[in-house]
Amino acid sequence: MLFSSVPFLYYFLPCVFAVYFLVPMRWKNAVLLLASLFFYAWGEPKFIVFMLVSIVQGYAFGRLVEKYQADRRRARLFLTLSVIFSLGLLGYCKYADFFLSGFNALTGLRLPLLHVALPIGISFYTFQILSYVVDVYRGEVEAQRNFIDLAAYVAMFPQLIAGPIVRYADIAAQLEQRTHTLSDIAAGARRFVLGLGKKVLLANVFFELITAFKASSDRSVLFYWLYAVACVLNIYFDFSGYSDMAISLGRIFGFRYLENFDYPYISASITEFWRRWHMSLGSWFRDYVYIPLGGNRVSKAKWLRNILVVWLLTGLWHGAAWNFVLWGLFFAVFLTAEKLWYGRALAKTHILKHLYVLLLVIVSFVLFDAASVRGAVSTIGGLFGAAGVSAVDPASLYYLRSFAAVLLVGIVGATPLPKRAVEKLCATRAGSVAVALLEPLALVVILAVSTGYLVDGSFNPFLYFRF
User: Where do the domains of the chain lie?
Assistant: First the structure.
């Protein structure tokens, strides 16, 4: 079930809200757990088994790790078993065929592929369980004794499918006791509608341009660039829109999730970009992989190894294909180069540093979106006229005219300019009154138009279902 779907918006969500706010506090986590299991089972019920087994092992090993905290050898054993189980299940479901295909290619054998269906959201809830057990081992949190509370944390439907990756330590106290206020509900509802609009009215429209490019045999350099820009905007508005909706639903239910995006396309370096993009994933790899490996407090050779491992894993986390591996390594190369060679010189430039980031991000997301490495190389070549095509053709001009307005809205909307304009307007009394009067109307219009698109059956893909 998608957030951006009529069944979720007008059937599931109102029913969950009604039950959740009617029951006393001691039953609210149980309501969230049952609602989340129903939400997850909507698409494919059998996948619930994978998630429940993962939760059970995380609960059991978390308790055992805490029980034998004084005996570090046993505690480390139980932690290791939990990690092996979590990563083993993730590896089987997500990477088995990828590694079998690679093995067959290297050896010339023809081992049959398993064709395992990928459970939706397994990368996200696996990382949450891993961080929980590791934090118990480190003594940073106490093991949760209430199974329903832990299961509700892992399975919570607002962030189950595509994050943000919520750490147990950040909401442990809120699982026990939280407050619900009208101001939080109003703020959550407002942000949810804005996130819905980003997804339906922007990301889905950019996906139409992407689809048109892939279906066309008449391509020009201009058309390649329209496609590339649409990719960058589609990925951002699709994923950040979902994060907005997840964070807002969490707030309505009394949880404060950390932010996941902070206008990444205004970054002045690739290092800064990854501080602003998918922040929950970046901080997870930093705290559970990079720092345990030694971070940057080791020899240069080991530091380079640490960077390579983190970004190889980051690429693989996004998908079991070589283009994702190369996507991760692509960022590893430029992050390393910035730190070792030209980072300080780049920081002294003005427009150049932003153009540098945008160019690399555009190339990286063309690679990310490609069906194969060969296809990515061909498309990237097309951006720079290497595909033997004309600079402009009638088809590309048609699509430029058709999508110019929404591309402009997307480009401006990916920056803090709209937010700053509203804040500046609210700084005056007249402007504050105008915003207070017009904002509800604007939100109703966004909700109505988004609903119209969904009822009409327009494009409604969700990028992270691939992962």
Answer: 6-178, 184-466
- What is the rounded CA–CA span in Å between residue 329 and residue 335? 10
Q: Express each pLDDT in 273-305 by its tens digit.
A: 999 999 999 999 999 999 999 999 999 999 999
Burial (Cβ within 10 Å: 0-12, 13-18, ≥19) of residue 108: exposed
For residue 156, count CB atoms less than 10 angstroms from its CB and return exposed for 0-12, middle for 13-18, buried for 19 or more.
buried
* pLDDT at residue 387 is higher than 90: no
Tokens describing residue 127: 């990382």
pTM over 0.90: yes
Instruction: Spell out the SS3 assignment of the chain.
Output: CCCCCHHHHHHHHHHHHHHHHHCCHHHHHHHHHHHHHHHHHCCCCCHHHHHHHHHHHHHHHHHHHHHCCCCHHHHHHHHHHHHHHHHHHHHHHHHHHHHHHHHHHHHCCCCCCCCCCCCCCHHHHHHHHHHHHHHHHHCCCCCCCCHHHHHHHHHCHHHHCCCCCCCHHHHHHHHHCCCCCHHHHHHHHHHHHHHHHHHHHHHHHHHHHHHHHHHCCCCCHHHHHHHHHHHHHHHHHHHHHHHHHHHHHHHHCCCCCCCCCCCHHHCCCHHHHHHHCCHHHHHHHHHHHHCCCCCCCCCHHHHHHHHHHHHHHHHHHHCCCHHHHHHHHHHHHHHHHHHHHHHHHHHCCCHHHHHHHHHHHHHHHHHHHCCCHHHHHHHHHHHCCCCCCCCCCHHHHHHHHHHHHHHHHHHHHCCCHHHHHHHHHHCCHHHHHHHHHHHHHHHHHHHHHHHHHHHHCCCCCCHHHHC
Q: Of the listed 115, 180, 278, 318, which one is catalytic?
A: 318
Structure tokens at 198: 């980003």
Q: Which tens digit of pLDDT belongs to each residue from 47-91?
A: 899 999 999 999 999 999 999 999 999 999 999 999 999 999 999
Q: Give the Cβ contact number of residue 272 at 10 Å.
A: 17
Is 318 part of the annotated catalytic residue set? yes
Name all contacts of 322-327 with Cβ < 8 Å and 24+ positions apart: 322/372, 322/373, 323/367, 323/368, 323/370, 323/371, 323/372, 323/373, 323/376, 324/368, 326/367, 326/373, 326/376, 327/364, 327/367, 327/368
Q: What residues contact 406, with CB distance under 8 A and at least 6 apart?
A: 202, 205, 206
